[in-house]
# Entry
Amino acid sequence: MLSRNRSIKLQAQPFILFGQVHIVTLLIILFLCLGIPKYLNRSSGETTKRFGYILAALLLIDLMCKPYYLSIFGYPYPRNLPIHMCSLSTMCISLFLLTEKKFLYEIAYFWGIGGGIMALLQPDTPRGFPDLQFIAFFFGHGGLFLGIAIATFVMNQRPTHHSLLKVLGLSLIVLPIMYLINTILGPPANYWYLGARPEGASILDFFPDPPLHIPLVMALGIVMFFLLYIPYWIKDGGFTKGAESAE
# Structure
């Protein structure tokens, strides 16, 4: 009985931002995202393809099952649908690993890294390990980053300025749709955090109260997208290429 009470108490511990568990979890994800692509680069193309299929299958199964198993453990069903930006990114990178359709990678790159970095650094999970939501959250986001890492560093995919504009346009189309979904479902539905701030500490704490924060969220997203493209823009010549074109 005592061990059972201790287990319940452990599960009920609040998540500590940048606490020991959070930092260790981030380091594990970083290690996997660097180590597995390095291993696959030394392996055959068939090994990469097989690993990609397995990762895609695991991520898609998790996406489809997550609303059900989280609801069984008491997390409200309306907030667990796989339509958050990171969930949609996970779906895109999984389908890319199965089909190699470039636009799926481009969506996952901008949405997944842009939204995923914010999510990993400021997780929307009230309790820490071994709480089910904590495990589901970091498995999904870790798998998302691993899929993007494999596509980028092993399969040699990369964004272009055209993909930047396409994903920006898609984001502006999907944004009002997500707001409408939140409105129809009502709380606790909060997809893309358009209806309320995340439960944990986040940069949105410094923004106006919802929905007045939406213009700032849009601006933040646009800045993040451009920051993610800058390394490739510099690699392609940046201002130097622009100056040569003008001449």
